[in-house]
Amino acid sequence: MRKKSLSPIQIIMGAFLLVILAGSLLLSLPVSSASGKAVGYIDALFTATTSTCVTGLVTLPTVTTWSFFGQLVILILIQIGGLGVITVLTGLMLLMKRKLGIGDRILIGESFNLNSLDGMVRLVKKVITITLIIEGVGALLYMSVFVPEFGLRGIWISIFTSVSAFCNAGIDIIAENSLCSYALNPVINITTMLLIIFGGIGFIVLLDIGKMLKNKKRRHFKFLSLHSKIVLSVTSFLIIAGATLFFIFEYNNPLSIKEFSVPEKIMVSLFQSVTTRTAGFATIAQENLTNASAFWTMLLMFVGGSPAGTAGGIKTVTLFVLFANARAVVRNKRTVDAFDRQLSVDAIKRAEAVFVTSLFIVIASTLFLSAFSDRGFLDIIYETVSATATVGLSRNFTGTLNAVGKIIIIMTMYLGRVGPISLAFAFAANKKSENVIINPVEEISIG
To answer: How many structural domains does the chain have?
Structure first.
């Protein structure tokens, strides 16, 4: 009898699950608790999941609940979740001078959604180096504010916040109200936004930009790859459009930014737009947003960041492909084009699959959470979209979840992080291939 082997996607999903379970066991130990009394396992599991899935939703305040050991475990889980389990394991293997086999290279390629296996070792080294440099610079910038305020503890706060921001986790150890106390601090705002953006656009884009800048003759947008052009264009548009609409919707809201000056309103609106890209930090209480801003936030959260990065959501490239395909259909074009290139049929099908399956997860999660919670619908769907897209923004709802609600959100965060399309591929990986039967075509009515 032929032994079934696990597919790369199944291995990646299993690795994430093992890291979550290991983290939950560590966090359930008394040494992880600030009080010295063990935290309940469901809350420990929730915290391990939100950290590994770089979501940021928390049932217990991170700053007061966990000891230094517990916070260190959370930080390690965030770093593993942001880089990806396979990248971290590969980095450890390289440190131990172990050679990578073809199977290892396939896993790396799958984790970064790459079709080629060339240069996998160099890619991992570059990704780890970029991460350490960006997080290091971010920590130093944070220290200029946190060390004068918190003393030596400010160093730990700066390191934790930098890693959390670059990995788009949104977990902090500063206060229970996230970064609301620093809503008007330009250093904290700018540093956090840059870290979120760098992590969100993806390592492939960062490497592509670096390659372009090294060549003096090719320092132009047109020399970037199609993937990078799409990511940078959509990211820029969503950040600007997001900030503009937040500025308009919240301008006269007395619960958010009404009392701020115009420059302060612009900064807060820009931060809200950036953090919705699956970062989860907040400088204004989300429950105080107008309905228009809350709905716009959900749309931005659902889109999220970009492929091969630390962010979640359906991704900017998926959104672009869907709109490009719709535009081609409306114009009756036979091909879907972008930046003088033709998009493949496979890319269009994957984009459609990612959108539909992600939407299904949001609908299912919202339905079940509504059945086991008496909170308002806006609070519930805000929570489920945030969990699916691994954002971490909440309308002060996460801490009130009952046991069933916590399990629902745990499952939603996990599915959102591993990717809905990966889940489908994982279940179909070991199915026997059958003879291809081409069915006859029959026209149906659409729209």
So the answer is: 1
